[in-house]
Amino acid sequence: FPGLQKPSRFTGAQSSSPLSQNILAPSHRFGVSSFSNTGSRCTKAARSWEKAEVAWGELHRDSRTRDYLQQWIQLQVDILEKTESDPLKDELRLGAIQQMYFETEASRQHLAWLKKGIETGVFKEQRVQQKAQEIIRDLQGRNNSR
């Protein structure tokens, strides 16, 4: 990407999945002028923080194709399923269900799974269960208004 430099100390393998390739965006959209040579922090933002957040929101919204959103929501479902019995992953699980909530329409294909998860106790944490119930309500409300 123009304006971004790979840290010289980076030695790990780079992911080739479509989701990981879309995480970084051209720096000019964020108003970031450069990164330090360690890659750990920005040297200076060319615009105000609020403008940078707005630019990120626009970029994020514009770059999310239907396929991307389906993959993203499936990742959240995988997280919820695979961390069900790990109490140390409660915050991760909450983040996953919140992502489904933020992308409610993209989560529609998992409505039956969400309902079954409520019935079978997949959502053990109260906040996760509440958010799942909100998604179900929102999706069913949208069905009724169609």
What does this structure look like?
With 146 residues, the protein is mainly alpha-helical. Helix content is 56%, strand content 0%. It contains seven helices and no strands. It has helices at residues 18-21, 27-30, 49-63, 66-82, 90-102, 111-120, 126-144. Helix 4 (66-82) runs antiparallel to helix 5 (90-102), helix 5 packs parallel to helix 7 and helix 6 crosses helix 7 (126-144). The longest helix is centred in the C-terminal third of the chain and has 19 residues, at 126-144. Mean pLDDT is 75; it is low at 6-41.
Please, what is the average pLDDT? 75
Number of strands: 0
Structural class: mainly alpha
Bin the helical content: 55-70%
Q: Give the terminus-to-terminus CA distance.
A: 42 Å
pLDDT < 50 stretches: 6-41
Radius of gyration: 19 Å
- How many individual helices? 7
Tertiary shape: globular
* Main β sheet profile: none
Please report which band the strand proportion falls in: under 5%, 5-15%, 15-25%, 25-35%, 35-45% or over 45%. Answer: under 5%
SSE topology string: HHHHHHH
Topology:
Elements: H1 18-21, H2 27-30, H3 49-63, H4 66-82, H5 90-102, H6 111-120, H7 126-144
Helix pairs in contact: 4-5, 5-7, 6-7
Key terms:
146 residues; mainly alpha; 0% strand
Structure in a nutshell:
With 146 residues, the chain is an all-alpha fold. The protein is 56% helix and 0% strand.
